[in-house]
């Protein structure tokens, strides 16, 4: 989740008793309000509702709200014409929240998956498509040392090559379950269509797509096992007493080493606690190591909720160096995803630059165009019968990204002039890049840099310590595909 606050569970229970703002009354009733709109709640005089800063409301999916109230407040809602029914009464806040999130069974129902059941399904896919799918660990969780798995899907998947890499990932925040389901749905869909659908076949021939369905495995297990649907952070034992209790942990999406100190919170009890230092958490460090290895061209990072896409960035009044292209891509992706109501599409909005989140690190450090998709509306995870619709809608967003990832752009291949060995070199676009971002470099294994660009003329400076720099002037990038430039660097003479 980005800087705004979601409607369900990850933020609602920072302190439930004062949510309605008057006294310390304990709200022991979970009430469902039917046929209600946001504006109705705002006018109720009882329940304060704001799309991103809810007070007292647990969820508002379509036209059904779930709220915590006292007996007196429930009666007052009925007197004011609201269609209310009591779902549960309990003195335990956690029990009421579990009932709101999981339903009457008090456990998560299909089609949602636990991390374990999701990976079992992935393994079945791998066995059915061994030439397309490879599964590998990228690290272990901070607290419980569970493996974090990535799934690479590509034609001839066992052969590392020089194709552009794409990243799709979910569940930095453990209660934002829809990302994992979209990742799994994508793997099923493209595996089934390879060799049958020309567009999907082309993508798997052209790209290496890496999917990390669940980044926050420890927290995801807490939520999907039915223990605590509020759990957002990882499971770090922040007080060191040997037990992990809500709301302990670190917000993994505030732990990245790009403007880390300006984002999140230094308060250990905050839902946005950024950790003791950048990349203190092995989950975030694992994604970073994967990204350094793969040098992703672009990526989608799933959070929930809001039906909005955030992209780099606004920062002290400045926009990202690639703003024109980022904005065009974000709008295309957003416009391809239909909302749950079906009457409009997602919105595209600038994200903040001073946050220490994955998308700022990916773009600011490596040049990856990362788009944060806040999927679903009204809850961190929607009722089970809504899941398949959300997944299907979001697959269109991934496919739009893949179409845009085909170009136009520039492929620069840097080698040693004598040995022809690939080189990692700085590939600088002085007409685009600012000091807000780190210089982009070619991959140390292949010597290749793929860079998406708007059509036009570009000057490029390629340099590496110990070599003479090369200047390419007015390179024309056409309206589609990849413009290729081979660059040989010569070593400087020793003095």
Mind sketching the topology for me?
Blueprint (H helix, E strand, L loop, with lengths): L28 E6 L3 H6 L13 E5 L2 E6 L1 H9 L3 E7 L3 H10 L12 H14 L4 E8 L6 E7 L11 E6 L7 H16 L4 H9 L1 E5 L4 H8 L57 H13 L3 E6 L4 E8 L2 E2 L3 H14 L10 E6 L5 H9 L2 E6 L9 H21 L4 E8 L9 E3 L19 E5 L3 E8 L6 E8 L4 E8 L6
Parallel strand pairs: 7-8, 7-9, 9-13, 10-12, 14-19
Antiparallel strand pairs: 1-3, 1-4, 2-3, 5-6, 6-8, 10-11, 10-13, 14-16, 15-17, 17-18
**Uncertain regions spanning at least 5 consecutive residues:** 2-24
What CATH calls the topology of the largest domain is: Aminopeptidase
CATH homologous superfamily descriptor of the largest domain: Zn peptidases
CATH class of the largest domain: Alpha Beta
Find the structural class using helix and strand composition. alpha/beta
Distance between the termini: 54 Å
CATH architecture label name of the largest domain: 3-Layer(aba) Sandwich
Short description:
The protein has 495 residues and is α/β, with parallel strands linked by helices. It has helices spanning 38-43, 71-79, 93-102, 115-128, 178-193, 198-206, 217-224, 282-294, 323-336, 358-366, 384-404; strands spanning 29-34, 57-61, 64-69, 83-89, 133-140, 147-153, 165-170, 208-212, 298-303, 308-315, 318-319, 347-352, 369-374, 409-416, 426-428, 448-452, 456-463, 470-477, 482-489. Helix content is 26%, strand content 24%.
Please give a structural write-up.
- The strands form 4 sheets. Strands 5, 6, 7, 8, 9, 10, 11, 12 and 13 form a 9-stranded mixed β-sheet that branches. The chain has a 4-stranded antiparallel β-sheet with strand order 2-3-1-4.
- Helices cover 26% and strands 24% of the residues.
- It has 3 domains: 86 residues, Alpha-Beta Plaits (2-Layer Sandwich), CATH 3.30.70; 290 residues, Aminopeptidase; 81 residues, Carboxypeptidase-like, regulatory domain (Immunoglobulin-like), CATH 2.60.40.
- The chain is elongated and about 85 Å long.
- Strand 2 and strand 3 form a beta hairpin.
- By secondary structure, the protein is an alpha/beta fold.
- The protein contains 11 helices and 19 strands.
- Helix 4 packs parallel to helix 5 and helix 5 packs across helix 11.
- The longest helix is centred in the C-terminal third of the chain and has 21 residues.
